[in-house]
Design brief:
The chain has about 400 residues and is of the alpha/beta class. About 40% of the residues lie in helices and about 15% in strands. The strands form three sheets. A seven-stranded mixed beta sheet has the order 2-8-7-6-5-3-4, sandwiched between helices. It has a four-stranded antiparallel beta sheet with strand order 9-10-13-12, with helices on one face. α4 runs parallel beside α11 and α12 runs parallel beside α14.
């Protein structure tokens, strides 16, 4: 596959566009969960203005009164065009896609297609907490296959977990996080091909959450799961939500590999009623016209990763931070800070430093003693966050 890496777009750094006073006027979860004296560096929202092509598309829709039900294949066509140019992948055939409300609700619907109540869903912990929450709520069992050396997929552990999941001839699925949240790991072609081979050998169906796919660091190539040899029976969920900060404009796409088309065809018709028409318009505009803005975001994130590494080395050297290959999330190992036994570093940083981070505990095995920090903000707020974290330990 021939890919076009992100390049300098000439657009200004979106993370330098908004002041703290401006951000505190927002009414979303990030800015309303904690009191105003808390610096929120937690939930996956970006502190950026909306990309101009998205603003224009939404404004035009509102001017027309175009606020009905979603229709047509424009979103899928936009994703196919983006995937071809960005990742060299011609695989997301429009006829094998379906619009779903968002990625996690799409995950639930895909898992319903390939598993039944009581069946196992394998996850690579530590992993995005809703993987546990949503799976358990739909009456499936979560089986952890913890990440191995370098926070990468441990294929031996994965195979043993697949064996347990399918014991007695039961159906099972592997919920793959790609790129991985919270570590920022980007799985390689070889790793994904090995996953596909193991899944085929053990009769496990793969459902890939690829919501962070556009958010790779410079020099890192994202590999769509459905592009690898042996992944023809896989199902993928993609969205412009994370890369263009569209969480409040609900819309995502479910994509089936060639051998999973019949499964996707069984998706209940009412699922397509959940996405927002304005969400579909926004996501389509992002994928078609928002790549220059995205490249400016990616350049800003590269700068922020370097900044965070430098600040931690200077002020909190006991914290281990390995800059992620993707996402705008930083996974920080705080186990060497010398906190009281059982203390959650996220609680300490919030209580004593007034900075909100995600606790690693809900991410499952391997999460205790860690925090997740959201890098998608201004350099000044990253510096202030580290300053408060250091002060919390004094």
């Amino acid at each position: 596959m021939t890919r076009i890496p992100h390049e300098t777009s000439g657009e200004p750094n979106p993370f330098r566009a908004l002041t703290l006073d401006h951000l505190r006027r927002r009414t979303s979860m990030k800015w309303r969960t904690y009191p105003d004296d808390v610096l929120p560096l937690w939930v996956a929202e970006m502190d950026v203005p909306l990309a101009e092509p998205i603003v224009r598309a939404l404004t035009d829709a509102l001017a027309l009164g175009d606020t009905g039900y979603p229709a047509c294949t424009g979103y899928a066509e936009a994703l196919a065009g983006f995937a071809g140019k960005r990742w060299g992948w011609q695989g997301p055939a429009v006829e094998r896609t379906a619009i779903v409300p968002d990625v996690m609700l799409g995950v639930v619907e895909m898992l319903k297609l390939v598993t039944g109540p009581g069946d196992a869903v394998v996850v690579n912990s530590p992993v995005y907490p809703p993987f546990h929450q949503f799976v358990e709520h739909m009456d499936r069992r979560v089986l952890e296959a913890p990440l191995g050396t370098g926070l990468r997929i441990d294929l031996d552990t994965l195979e043993e977990t697949f064996r347990r999941a399918t014991r007695g001839g039961r159906r099972a699925a592997f919920l793959l996080c790609s790129p991985h949240n919270p570590t920022g790991t980007v799985h390689t072609m070889a790793e994904l091909a090995a996953v596909a081979a193991l899944a085929d050998r053990h009769g496990v169906r793969v459902v890939a959450d690829e919501i962070h796919a556009p958010l790779t660091a410079a020099g890192v190539a994202f590999v769509p799961y459905l592009s690898v040899p042996g992944a023809e029976s896989g199902l993928s969920l993609m969205s412009a939500s994370k890369a263009w900060n569209l969480a409040g404009l609900k819309a995502a796409l479910a994509i089936a590999g060639p051998a999973a088309a019949a499964d996707l065809a069984r998706l209940p018709e009412e699922v397509s009623h959940g996405p927002s028409h304005l969400g579909v318009i926004a996501h389509t505009a992002a994928l078609r016209e928002g790549t220059d803005w995205l490249d400016a975001v990616l350049a800003g994130l590269d700068d922020n990763r370097r900044l965070l590494a430098d600040l931690l080395a200077e002020h909190l050297p006991a914290i281990t931070y390995r800059p992620g290959e993707a996402t705008y999330l930083a996974w920080l190992d705080c186990r060497a800070l010398g906190l009281d036994e059982g203390a959650d570093p996220a609680d300490v940083f919030l209580r004593c430093g007034r900075v909100a981070l995600n606790s690693g505990v809900p991410f499952g095995t391997g999460g205790a003693g860690h925090v997740r920090l959201n890098l998608a903000t201004s350099p000044e707020l990253i510096a202030e966050g580290v300053r408060r974290m250091a002060a919390a330990l004094d």
